[in-house]
Specification:
Order of helices and strands: EHHEHHHEHEHEHEEHEEHEHEEHHHH
Distance between the termini: 45 Å
Strand order of the largest sheet: 2-1-3-4-5-6
Radius of gyration: 22 Å
Strand content: 5-15%
Number of domains: 2
CATH topology of the largest domain: Rossmann fold
Number of helices: 15
Length: about 375
């Protein structure tokens, strides 16, 4: 199977040595390409840098008039005949590609990630314009988005499947060599982060320290830790990947405060911390309900609840046994549901299934089978967390 991967970002190159030495996580698009290339498979990656360098007049015109994402879709349209399948890593590329493919007599299979099809513009394209007719499989991270796509957008159920996001289990893993500071809490990311509520709770916890890794390579949300006076026990700055991993490792608690939203905002930080065996506290929003079971593999706080954050933090800070139990269960959950290897396998299966369906007379895609979980024996979990 020949697959074209359209990734709406500047693809990282030259990180292989850092990955091999454990200084940088695997990029998910590299992991997916590697999975697709096993056996007789072939996979090509195209990102923003390739779009910028493309001299085709249609690509250049589209980039000038509609931006990089639409130009990336144009690359897929122009090169699609050479491939069995195209993977788009979000609706921002999937929608323009589907529109371009609408009048094409023969097209490759098209699989995409549906991050948030419930928003206004996407709702129009999926609803009234039915761009999903040119998409064979839509993989969604949040149950709320899966259910919305089925009930409100009327997308064929066989095209929809909920999958888990991922953490690179080879990079984000328990680091027993780093001592845990029982008075340290950390938080990371920018996407829909309600840092004002968390900071307000920390003002009543002067004996504890909150360190915020206030950066995200994807989020367009503003950094709410900037241009404000932080309490003496709160600091915020950017961290490199290996610094972020060490920050997780040294913290007793990882906090993921969120504003209300209907998709899985905060999922990257949440899974990275869980993969390191950390006790996590997360805001329970409409969209963030699929990962944490309150009191089992983490704690949940209501939206905007300063007192709730204070109580959850104090509870975990005072109960070491509960912190260890939640961290153990969190680590197990990630290895059973949300490793990068599993994610790559899920998408590869969806692409192969969609490609096979395109070759059948009925063209029925259906659901790709789930890959088996990357289970981690209890003995390994306990050994990792007890050191």
């Amino acid at each position: 199977m020949k697959t074209l991967l359209l990734i709406p970002s500047v693809l990282k190159t030259g990180v292989e040595n850092a990955v091999r030495h454990g200084d940088h996580p695997r990029m998910d698009y590299h992991a997916l390409a590697g999975e697709l290339r096993q056996g007789q498979g072939h996979a090509d990656l195209v990102g923003y840098a390739e779009v910028d360098a493309d001299s085709h007049p249609l690509v250049r015109l589209t980039r000038r008039l509609a931006g990089r994402d639409a130009a990336l879709a144009m690359v897929g349209f122009l090169r699609g005949a050479k491939y069995d399948a195209i993977f788009t890593n979000g609706e921002n590329v999937a929608i323009p590609l589907a529109l371009l493919l609408r009048n094409k007599r023969r097209r490759p299979a098209h699989v995409t990630i549906g991050h948030r099809p419930s928003t206004g513009k996407k709702r129009l394209f999926f609803g009234s314009l039915r761009v999903h007719d040119q998409i064979d499989s839509i993989l969604l991270y949040a149950t709320t988005q899966h259910d919305f796509a089925r009930s409100e957008l009327r997308i064929t159920p066989q095209k929809l499947r909920r999958i888990e996001f991922h953490a690179d289990e080879q990079f984000f893993k328990p680091r027993p060599q780093i001592p845990v500071n029982p008075a340290q809490i950390c938080a990371a990311g920018l996407e829909w982060r309600d840092y004002p509520t968390l900071i307000a709770a920390m003002e009543s916890l002067p004996d504890l320290e909150l360190r915020i890794a206030a950066a995200s390579p994807w989020s367009k949300h503003r950094n709410e830790t900037e241009a404000r006076t932080l309490p003496p026990n709160v600091s915020a700055k950017r961290y490199a990947y290996n610094e972020l991993r060490d920050l997780y490792a040294a913290s007793a608690i990882v906090a993921v405060p969120l504003y209300e939203n209907d998709f899985q905002a905060g999922v990257t930080t949440l899974l990275e911390a869980m993969a390191m065996g950390k006790a996590v506290i997360v805001t329970r929003t409409t969209g963030q309900t699929d990962i944490i079971t309150d009191g089992v593999n983490g704690l949940c706080v209501a939206v905007g609840d300063v007192d709730g954050w204070f109580e959850a933090i104090r509870r975990l800070q005072n109960d070491v046994a509960l912190r260890i139990q939640l961290g153990t269960n969190a680590l197990r959950w990630v290895h059973e549901h949300a490793t990068l290897n599993r994610w790559s396998g899920e998408i590869t299966a969806a692409l192969r299934n969609a490609t096979a369906a395109m070759r059948r007379p009925d063209g029925f895609t259906g659901n790709a089978p789930r890959t088996s979980p990357d289970t981690l024996p209890d003995s390994v979990l306990q050994r990792s967390l007890s050191k």
